[in-house]
């Protein structure tokens, strides 16, 4: 076969294959054009999931008669600087392939009018065949109508999904663009039905949370913390959901770079790293983060659909995300998601006393005031300085509470049920605390603080513990003796099938030493010989905290219960355990009264 040039129509259809994957791809390109044209309102209408019709109308700058043919010419653009510097892209689109690619596989019509022009102009393209511009009636702005998508490439039609699925992809694309620009009004209509209607706010930043709540859900606004930081010319803003407000997939993680929605591995990895300590496996945080940096520090010319970016200094960006998220979550203190308590209320059917599976629901919450921070000590030490009436012999019921204790965010302990749950009374409701989960988080945070300040204090066992293990497990532990000693656990081999434990972290108190050592041996097998424990510090500390925390089933005295509550109030992240589950549920008195028909 000889080498030959491809016809323009074939070239355009090949380009369309890269740019126009599905109807949502068309919507993305056209809406980005409208945003770059400084539109204040963008309306999208679709029919049959975008197959029959995609129409995008805006009130932007508009185009002249002479510009219309250029708009559908390949590699023609108004979005590059005059020197055509590809390293200085300040717009959402710049390749100049979107409109010609769309016109190559559909029936395309563009109607546009510039401000001050006597009339508008219209131009049609059918399967790549260009028509002649003609006058048209229109107010200032542009309308692009795409009919019979892929009629010119019918093989592509069979790869499209159902109308509902394609509409869902369109809604997702438009929602992401709407999140980035709350100063622009967006409307999506499926026939005559409103799918999305987002009115414009007066300010880009001040209206951001309201726009996010409109799209993600009102409960996001109730359960998100603000993120704002800047480092070396990179600015990060946005909102991050509390760890206990999470989802089964990462679909609700919205990431933007210079106003451009992206799906970037670096950014997604940074989010995972920031939440690593707080969310268990299989769950994902909900957040919307916006990164702003100079255009020359970013390469957006990485992917035909412009969904991936490359940073000049990726380390700075990743470090900024991880550090800012961790700081914002720490400032949230012990706060837990409102959806936890509302799911608990939703689990009860009023009237018949039966239960049903809990489902997330909308709710409101306000940040708790911080309690005075006690020193990082054990429960017994803190309890010794906390004056509270003694409970009965079983430690289950507390008749009276210390003066002012109900004014604390987590209230005053009123009792313990099933040896596992602490019930406390606040000024306007009750709080139910899982004592093991809560203390596990407290011990974990204390261990991390101790490591950061120079090392974990150790306590010598009066009677060393001998733990019998398989020979391979003994070998793994013996090989990590020094690393484990740095974490406060001193052990050594004791024959071929056992280790002897001589010292343990003081924070663990009288924990389950044998269970801890067995679990660590299994974890070391998963880590592998080449991984240093400091790289898996969170997993090791989490295991230690779990075995050293107050166990379910242990009876607590009143002062111990109250000491636990006060420590939770003063400890960041205490609203969830090390596995991402909530440590407490708060029920407002008004909600309880409604549950019993009193309201």
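-> sequence recovered:
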């Amino acid at each position: 076969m000889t080498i030959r040039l491809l016809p323009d129509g074939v070239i355009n259809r090949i380009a369309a294959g890269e740019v126009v994957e599905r109807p949502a791809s068309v919507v993305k390109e056209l809406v980005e054009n409208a945003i770059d044209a400084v539109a204040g309102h963008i309306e999208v209408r679709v029919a049959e999931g975008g197959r029959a019709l995609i129409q995008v109308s805006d009130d932007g700058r508009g185009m002249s008669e002479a510009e219309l043919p250029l708009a559908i010419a390949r590699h023609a653009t108004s979005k590059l600087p005059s020197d055509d510097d590809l390293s200085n892209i300040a717009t959402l689109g710049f390749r100049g392939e979107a409109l010609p690619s769309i016109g190559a596989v559909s029936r395309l019509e563009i109607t546009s009018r510039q401000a001050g022009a006597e009339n508008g102009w219209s131009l049609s393209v059918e399967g790549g065949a260009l028509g002649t511009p003609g006058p048209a009636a229109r107010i200032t702005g542009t309308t692009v109508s795409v009919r019979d998508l892929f009629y010119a490439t019918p093989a592509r039609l069979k790869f499209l999904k159902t109308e509902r699925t394609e509409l869902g992809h369109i809604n997702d694309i438009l929602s992401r663009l709407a999140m980035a620009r709350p100063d622009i009004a967006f409307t999506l209509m499926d026939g005559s039905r409103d799918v999305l209607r987002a009115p414009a706010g007066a300010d880009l930043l001040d209206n951001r949370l309201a726009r996010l709540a409109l799209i993600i859900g009102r409960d996001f606004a109730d359960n998100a913390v603000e993120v704002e930081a800047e480092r070396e010319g990179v600015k990060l803003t946005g909102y991050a959901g509390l760890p206990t407000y999470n989802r089964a997939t990462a679909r609700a993680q919205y990431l933007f770079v210079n106003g451009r929605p992206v799906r970037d591995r670096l950014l997604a990895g940074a989010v995972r790293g920031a939440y690593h300590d707080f969310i268990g496996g299989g769950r994902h945080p909900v957040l919307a983060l916006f990164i702003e940096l100079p255009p020359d520090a970013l390469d957006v010319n990485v992917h035909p659909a412009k969904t991936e970016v490359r940073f000049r200094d990726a380390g700075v960006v990743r470090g900024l995300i991880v550090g800012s998220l961790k700081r914002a979550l720490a400032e949230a203190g012990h706060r837990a998601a409102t959806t936890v308590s509302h799911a608990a209320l939703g689990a009860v059917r009023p009237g018949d006393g039966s239960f049903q599976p809990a489902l997330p629901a909308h709710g409101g919450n306000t940040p708790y005031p911080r309690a005075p921070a006690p020193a990082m000590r054990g429960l017994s030490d803190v309890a010794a300085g906390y004056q509270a009436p003694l409970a009965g012999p079983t430690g289950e019921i507390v008749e009276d509470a210390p003066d002012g204790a109900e004014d604390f965010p987590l209230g005053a302990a009123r009792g313990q049920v099933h040896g596992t749950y602490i019930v406390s009374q606040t000024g306007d409701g009750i709080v139910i605390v899982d004592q093991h989960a809560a203390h596990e988080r407290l011990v974990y945070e204390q261990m991390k603080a101790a490591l950061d300040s120079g090392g974990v204090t150790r306590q010598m066992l009066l009677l060393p513990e001998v733990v019998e293990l398989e020979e391979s497990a003994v070998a793994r532990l013996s090989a990590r003796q020094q690393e484990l000693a740095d974490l406060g656990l001193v052990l050594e081999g004791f024959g071929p099938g056992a280790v002897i434990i001589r010292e343990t972290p003081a924070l663990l108190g009288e924990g389950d030493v044998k269970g801890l050592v067995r679990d660590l041996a299994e974890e070391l097998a998963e880590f592998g010989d080449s991984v240093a424990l400091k790289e898996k510090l969170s997993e090791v500390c989490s295991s230690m905290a779990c075995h050293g925390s107050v166990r379910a089933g242990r009876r607590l005295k009143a002062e111990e219960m109250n000491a636990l509550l006060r420590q939770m109030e003063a400890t960041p992240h205490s609203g969830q355990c090390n596995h991402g589950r909530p440590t407490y549920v708060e029920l407002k008195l008004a909600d309880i009264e409604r549950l019993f028909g009193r309201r």
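Residues 347 and 357 are 6 Å apart (CA to CA).
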